[in-house]
Specification:
It is a single chain. This protein has 182 residues and is mainly α. The chain has two domains: 3-58, Orthogonal Bundle (Arc Repressor Mutant, subunit A); 68-178, no CATH class. It has ten helices and no strands. The chain has helices at residues 3-27, 30-37, 41-48, 51-58, 76-90, 93-101, 105-126, 131-151, 155-159, 162-178. Helix 1 (3-27) crosses helix 4 (51-58) and helix 1 packs parallel to helix 6 (93-101). The longest helix is centred in the N-terminal third of the chain and has 25 residues, at 3-27.
């Protein structure tokens, strides 16, 4: 694929991410995405086949999760919150996915797969015996924060600084990741 084709695909993906994030999966259309990208709808179909394949490409997301075993155990919760905030702020694909996951089973499954495939192995290195439960609880906090901050934009949460969010959520993620609750 040439440079022009790569550029066209990038423009389509950017428009798709914005449209899916704004409208959700169900309401977004190939025509609207093509109009946003200022190209013919046939080009979207040429590069991505259909709406489902376009969504899958637009919602592709790497958490770029660090090796948690390299961190000091006392810094784990704060580091995870900081990392997740950075990923949500730097790449709108997770916002697209989160917004769409509330109404679309495929998007919900993709979100589940991302967290199971990327967060679970990281937590498994720390606590192999209880990793699924701990990773699931961490996901509840991260996804809840992201929903309230980036999708619903609940004013107190959206207005908090990164430092404040880390201070509030870090201890909770720390507890989920490391503390015994028996």
């Amino acid at each position: 694929m040439g440079a022009k084709a790569d550029q066209t695909k990038a423009v389509i993906l950017a428009a798709a991410r914005e449209r899916f994030a704004e409208s959700g999966y169900e309401a977004a259309t190939i025509r609207a995405i093509a109009a946003d990208a200022n190209i013919d709808p046939s080009m979207v179909m040429r590069y991505f086949g259909n709406k489902e394949q376009l969504f899958a490409a637009a919602a592709e997301f790497d958490l770029r999760f660090p090796d948690l075993s390299e961190l000091s155990p006392s810094e784990l919760g704060a580091s995870m919150v900081s990392h997740f905030l950075a990923r949500w702020e730097d790449d709108d694909a997770l916002v697209v996915l989160l917004r769409s996951a509330t109404t679309n089973a495929d998007a919900a499954q993709r979100m589940t797969d991302i967290f199971a495939g990327q967060l679970l192995p990281a937590i498994s290195k720390l606590v192999p015996d209880d990793a699924p439960r701990r990773a699931g609880l961490i996901a509840t906090q991260v996804l809840g924060m992201a929903l309230c901050r980036f999708v619903l934009r609940i004013p107190p949460v959206a207005a908090m600084s990164r430092v404040e969010l880390v201070a509030w959520l870090g201890p909770t993620l720390q507890r989920y990741a490391m503390e015994d609750v028996t």
